[in-house]
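Entry type: protein chain
Record version: 2
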Amino acid sequence: MTPGKAFLTSGEIRSLSARSDLWGVWLVAHAWGLILCAVILFAVWPNPLTFVLAVMVIGSRQLGLAILMHEAAHNALFRTRAFNEWAGEWLCGRPIIADLPEYRHYHLTHHRYTQTERDPDLRLSKPFPTTRASLRRKFIRDITGQTGLKQRAQQVMFALKMAGEVEGTPSSQDLAQAFSGPLIGRALIANAVIFALFWALTGLWWAWFAFWLLPLLTWFQLVLRIRNIAEHGAVEFSDDPLRNTRTTLANPLERLLVAPYWVNYHLEHHLVMHVPAHNLPKLHEMMIAKGHGDKMQTAPNYRAVLAQAASLSR
């Protein structure tokens, strides 16, 4: 059962659930437009400030692509399933080395068992609240690339396992099978296109390494962790849909760097998971108007969320 049916009428849910191809095109174009603008900005005015700004903006839009892939996993990005599959796979997932079908299976399990022992995302939320020192160590691992490198290594090993059980040191044939298979092979194709595009835009052969791989291993990991903490960290371990997840109100800077494409309205998303992201603010306002605001787990901003997540003493 959709949890939102306990709070909304079928007509209200139906009005919020309408998909739009125009919205889908706009959101994907917006994500890639900001990425390309950040690269061009550095190419026109190359200096340390524009370099750091580009890494931050692109890393945040890589999170944006992950969010749009999440939309496609719910068939909410476009009206037709075919468009959701193609755009979610090639324009959103593969560029950040993510697999849409695998993610959909994992994510729908999370929706079914939110904040229970069978929730596959419990490992992301259960460590919180923690201490400030522990949270600081996690952030340092993220921003220095340690988390990203570890995850990429795990992806390669998983691809090797899918290509065939591997014992000991993988051979060149094992590696060839893994990188030619669908899990990594399609990601290599997508990233080869990005490599060529960035080189053409900047005239710099290393642009992909600086403005795609570096953000993916650093800033993207940091904002991804902040997103995960905000959604289910330090909330109730229960089946109450108003208390086992959180909505975080976000200002324009937070929406640019931490919470693109209304991902901060996570409680509302769990109420009706097939509502397109651009309608989640309307769903939030509807819940407030119906008098449920005091019962909903909300935070005024991401700073407040992180303070709560790091509220344990030594």
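Comment: Residues 3-123+139-162+180-305 form one domain.
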